[in-house]
Amino acid sequence: MSHDTLLHRLIRPPVRVVARTGVTPNQVTTLRLFAALGAAGAFAAGGVVWMATGAGALLLSLLLDRADGELARQTGLSSVGGYRYDLISDCIGNIVAFLGLGVGLRGVMGPAGIVLGALAGVSIVVLFYLLNVAKVASAKGVSANGRVLVDPDDAMLLIPFMIWFGIAPAVVAIGGTVTPVVALIVGVRALIRRGR
After folding, report:
1. Backbone torsion region of residue 135, taken as left when φ is above 0, otherwise alpha when ψ lies between -120 and 50, otherwise beta
2. For 61-75, what is each residue's pLDDT tens digit?
3. What element of type H or E holds 150?
4. What is the mean pLDDT for each group of 10 consecutive residues in the chain (196 residues)?
5. Of 1.20.120.160, 1.20.120.1760, 1.20.1640.10, 1.10.1060.10, which CATH number belongs to 6-195?
6. I need a labelling partner for 136 at 20 to 30 A (CA). Which of 14, 74, 104, 126 fits?
7. Which residues contact 96 (CB under 8 A, 6 or more apart)?
8. Nearest Cα to Cα of residue 95 among 70, 126, 71
9. What is the 3-state secondary structure (H, E, C) of the chain?
């Protein structure tokens, strides 16, 4: 994953301001986690207003996810512990957000919404682990002039907008079916490479 995508460049100026305040990267990570938990709770409540509110909290959570690492780099406060805390928060945030979305859509999708939401959240975590922790594969982003403009993780930013446009069931259906297949393919390819 790149640290110089368009999104990173977008959040860099506000992070420079925050860097002067004494706020730490771990505090931003904690705020990111609480925003994801808030999104999950709002999603689980269901209904148009709560879904829209959850989408806003999820967008905030995703932006804070970029901001914590950027703050760590700008302030020289990068650490192994902070990196691990960020990973754990990302995993928890993704799982609960998708699970909350599935629970909130149970009136539309029935129990399948909950199952697909859980599958989506867990599969995103598995993919994140395979690509960023185990580094058994790489995911190329969209590049221009040798610079990565958008990386695959930035695709998560589409989810709040899809929810605002009223296609939350599609988010859960696609996330719960396509993401597990992609995670399985990446995992199997990694095992085949190791076996060679």
Report:
1. left
2. 999 999 999 999 999
3. strand 147-150
4. 73 92 95 98 96 97 93 92 91 93 95 94 85 65 52 81 95 92 86 79
5. 1.20.120.1760
6. 74
7. 36, 37, 40, 121
8. 126
9. CCCCCHHHHHHHHHHHHHHCCCCCHHHHHHHHHHHHHHHHHHHHHCCHHHHHHHHHHHHHHHHHHHHHHHHHHHHCCCCHHHHHHHHHHHHHHHHHHHHHHHHHCHHHHCHHHHHHHHHHHHHHHHHHHHHHHCCCCCCCCEEECCEEEECHHHHHHHHHHHHHCCCHHHHHHHHHHHHHHHHHHHHHHHHHHHHC
User: Two tokens at 137?
Assistant: 């594969």
Q: What confidence score (pLDDT) does residue 151 get? A: 63
Q: Are 70 and 78 spatial neighbours (Cβ–Cβ below 8 Å)?
A: no
pLDDT tens digits for range 40-52 = 999 999 999 999 9
**What's the whole-number average pLDDT of the chain?**
87
Its pTM stands at: 0.87
Q: At what angle do helices 25-45 and 48-75 cross, to 10 degrees?
A: 170
